Amino acid sequence: MTIPEYMQPQYNELSKMRSMMETMKKQQAQRGVEGLKARMAHRAATHNSWRQMKGMQLVMHEINHPGNKPFVIGLGVTVSLFMYAYFKGLGSETAKQESKYWQRYHAAGGSSAGH
């Protein structure tokens, strides 16, 4: 079956009208008190707010928040610098031998007078 040339534009719009009608039916089904309750139940079952998150899930949520990007970048740079400094010399055996604090509280033969 071929469509006559003069009816082709109407036929092309038919699929758009069908999809629009499906959307309208779905929206109409969500209206009213029952629809609101169903939407709220679905949202509660499938969505976590930041108040319901714990641990790494909350940390990743906050890291991905656009307002926290500068803070996360600054924290990353600072942590990187401190780790570099620690592993490059602050945590070395020489630094531990020269540290009065390390010798007093952590060394095997150190005095524990400050405890």
Describe this structure as you would to a colleague.
By secondary structure, the protein is mostly helical. It is built from six helices and no strands. The chain has helices at residues 8-29, 32-46, 55-63, 69-90, 93-98, 100-105.
Largest sheet: none
What is the oligomer described by this structure?
single chain
Question: How much beta, percentage-wise?
Answer: under 5%
* Uncertain runs: none
Structural class: mainly alpha
Q: What is the tally of helical segments?
A: 6
Helix and strand sequence: HHHHHH
Report how far apart the termini are.
Answer: 96 Å
Number of strands: 0
Mean pLDDT: 85
In one word, what is the shape? elongated
Short recap of the structure:
With 115 residues, this protein is mainly alpha-helical. It contains six helices and no strands.
Please outline the helices and strands.
Layout: H1 8-29, H2 32-46, H3 55-63, H4 69-90, H5 93-98, H6 100-105
Features:
6 helices, single chain, 115 residues, mainly alpha, 0% strand, elongated
